[in-house]
């Protein structure tokens, strides 16, 4: 088989893999979005914000939060405003930078997020229940190599 044909076959296999990954991601996200909406009356973006803040007990500046979520500040601002109204997060003024605020989970926010995170973990377990621990580990190992090829950080 020629190198060009091998490359073409590899390219087609990569494209199939990409489409499979994308389709799987979309289906899983659709299930998670629906369950968050029906069981907690919340959205996946709100859950993502709460998850990022839960990993930083001291809170995050808005630009740090946006960077963590890989979205613009504008995308996060509305979500934060609603979470503040709900009493799940608070804005804390930063003395050394009057233009910036730190966003931090409240005790209510922590409790709500912990409930959602536990349910989220169960849902993900259910969605991937047909994979053994070994198969999941192997897939994780394989996928860990993808960012290295493009130079993107993991």
Automatic annotation (TrEMBL):
Claim: DNA-binding is one of the keywords in the record: yes
Superkingdom, natural source: Bacteria
HTH marR-type domain sequence ranges: 14-148
Keyword list, A-Z: DNA-binding, Transcription, Transcription regulation
Pfam family, one: MarR_2
GO terms assigned for molecular function: DNA binding; DNA-binding transcription factor activity
GO biological process: response to stress
InterPro entries for the chain: HTH_MarR-typ, MarR/SlyA-like, Tscrpt_reg_MarR-type_CS, WH-like_DNA-bd_sf, WH_DNA-bd_sf
Keyword Heme: no
Name of this protein: MarR family transcriptional regulator
């Amino acid at each position: 088989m020629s190198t060009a044909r091998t490359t073409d076959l590899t390219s087609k296999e990569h494209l199939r893999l990409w489409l499979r990954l994308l389709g799987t991601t979309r289906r899983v996200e659709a299930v998670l979005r629906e369950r968050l909406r029906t069981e907690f009356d919340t959205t996946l973006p709100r859950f993502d914000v709460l998850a990022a803040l839960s990993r930083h007990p001291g809170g995050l500046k808005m630009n740090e939060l946006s960077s963590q979520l890989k979205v613009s500040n504008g995308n996060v601002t509305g979500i934060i405003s609603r979470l503040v109204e709900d009493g799940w997060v608070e804005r804390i003024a930063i003395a050394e930078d009057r233009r910036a605020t730190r966003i931090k989970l409240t005790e209510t926010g922590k409790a709500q997020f912990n409930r959602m995170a536990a349910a989220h973990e169960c849902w993900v377990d259910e969605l991937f229940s047909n994979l053994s621990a070994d198969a999941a580990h192997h897939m994780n190992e394989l996928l860990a190599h993808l960012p290295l090829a493009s130079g993107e950080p993991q």
